[in-house]
Amino acid sequence: MFSYRHAFHAGNHADVLKHLTLIATLKYLTDKDSALTVIDTHAGAGLYRLDGDMARTSAEATQGVQKLFWADFEAKSAISRQRICAECYQYCSACFARLSGHAGQF
Length: 106
Hints:
Elements: H1 13-29, H2 53-58, H3 65-69, H4 73-100
Helix pairs in contact: 1-4
């Protein structure tokens, strides 16, 4: 049987997309005044060291969240930061629109 250990994959591109999608979905659902209950049935450890042995084995985070964390903002100016955030927002908005059937901002 296949054994999945998230510590080897934490912070990869799919992890980033998953968390952005979750944030967008929760933001959309909490815009209403009605109550909301969220139960995470697949939560793992909740915190994974990206500099730990398992994460370094696959180094998948270097192509995911570390691109966002380790961008050389000092050398590139605030315009680069805004561009990165805008591109991420546009991508997530498009994904959310496809998933929800609602166009527009999330």
